[in-house]
Amino acid sequence: MLASPAKIFASTVLDKLWKRVTRGGNLVDLDDEARHQLRITAKKLRYAAEFFSPLCMGKAETKRHKRFITAMEGLQDQLGSLNDLATAPDMLSKLALSGVPGAGDLVSAADKARF
């Protein structure tokens, strides 16, 4: 059956990406660049998992796969929000909006604690 070798390949690829995501450590302790790299790796993992979804057979496997994709979407959203907070000051500066009243309220270090 061809699905079996494909499942082994998919498992190898997904395991490799998963290890790269999980070795990132505590999100709070990561600097902005490391967190951005983690975001990229998480995106690759999610897209790979979506690509291999036709290999999921049976209700339980399909349900587990959907839960994983949902969790990865949530992780990507959180990492994206943190990335927005990290890049916003530079963006405001480039757009010459740093001095505009209220611009500082858009981004603060305290906002990172929410994520």
TrEMBL record:
<feature type="domain" description="CHAD">
    <location>
        <begin position="1"/>
        <end position="115"/>
    </location>
</feature>
<dbReference type="InterPro" id="IPR007899">
    <property type="entry name" value="CHAD_dom"/>
</dbReference>
<keyword id="KW-0614">Plasmid</keyword>
<protein>
    <submittedName>
        <fullName>CHAD domain-containing protein</fullName>
    </submittedName>
</protein>
<dbReference type="Pfam" id="PF05235">
    <property type="entry name" value="CHAD"/>
</dbReference>
<dbReference type="InterPro" id="IPR038186">
    <property type="entry name" value="CHAD_dom_sf"/>
</dbReference>
